[in-house]
Amino acid sequence: MDKRLLTLPLLATVGCMSHAQTDPNHPNIVFILADDMGFSGIHAYGGNQIPSPNIDFLADNGVVCDNFRATPLSSTTRVCLMTGCYQQRAGLNHIYSEIDPMDGLDPATHPSFAGLLRDAGYRTGLIGKWHLGQDIKFNPLNHGWDVWHGYTMGNIDFQSHYNTIHEIDWWDGKERKDEPGYVTYLINKHSVNFIKESVKEKKPFFLMVSENAVHVPMQGPNDPPLRTDDTCPYRNDENMTDQEYRRVYQDMVQAMDEGVGQIIRTLREQGVLDNTIIIYTSDNGGEKVAAEKYPGNNGYFRGWKGGAYEGGCRVPAIFYYPKAWGHRKTSEPMHCIDFMPTFLDMCNVDNPRKVDGVSMLPTLEKNLPMPQRKLYSAETGFMTVTDGDWKCVWGKNNKIELFNLMTDRNEEHDLSAMYPERVEGYKKDMLDWWADCTKGTRLEGRTTWNSGWVVELVEKLAKEGKTLQDLPFFQQAAGKTVMNPVKKNSRKKAKK
Asked: Model's pTM, two decimal places?
């Protein structure tokens, strides 16, 4: 494929909107990233009583992958898809700190793919969740995004827009600018507006729709705020009945699915649907509460978000581009590190950076197998390597487990005692991978068992004779206090 850059002068010579946005060498892309959506969190992947007709439309007319892995956590998946590299190369082994605004993905050293697309003539927009740093230094606009409406932290209240440190966290570019509305509806609105504005500007576009759903707090469009001027608990789902949890979950999915429908209709009305790739996936598996209150949320997989087992990382992945790829299922192993090189390959833009991921386009376009490789994962407390059907999990207290996913997809039968040589080989592979990825980062010299902002904070506090519960953030999460107390007229000022 010819990788000529679609420069602005070239766009000018193209001359008309229809040519600029229907050129198959430079398709538009809409990338929809759900939050905490387990493998079977939608109907197309077997979700029980979870209607999602618009996402079903993508699946019924696209390539459906049943062997796609994200990382088990939010920030780490976002680093992978933005940079094409394992998050450890950016010095991250957990989410970015909730209490240190200077902890984030530095665009000077680890820029996102958006800048490459923008330089090639694409209009880039990110709507919704960022979770790659709170300080303005890490702002999406500094990473190559032309437009951003959304929030910086891991989640916000769907109604009041308070984040976990009790601040109104809704932005328009580099300006904190609150606006009324249910968060998913705001994401839907700004996504549609971005498409219309891009067509008007006669530019091909890349739109990332970064959802808040179905992350806590669990709130449907008609549910009240959880975080108010006077209180700011982290979550509200643990005391819900199973019936109430399922009702709210379905409401949240429905609001997100409505947005997918609005995007599809807008693309069709603007005359660009035929030349737009739509991708739907999730940043990690469903939470433990979701797996317990909505059995089957993580499919048939063991575990949940944040853990080493498949329930934490196996997610839905739908690739819609029927005119070129048709409809089929693929079980080829894909990973979120593959998104960045794939996006550039789809848009016919050169990738000058060395990355860990590979393009999925040959598999999507020609049904070719993905390259044989070992896929690694690490978060605070564990490392894993997946090698074809084999998966080795190295957990706390030097616990080693070995599974064959072909015959034991639920990871119930540990085969480590039967294959000691294979286990030793995988342990060496994981140690070598960790050393390579962490070299020159803040993780160098540490292990996965003592890396990550929470465990490092615990380590620091222990030297001071303190625990996490001595900090206002953790007291607030438990409903015992409120950080950043609301001052008179502060909400009014935040909206200006």
From this structure: 0.94
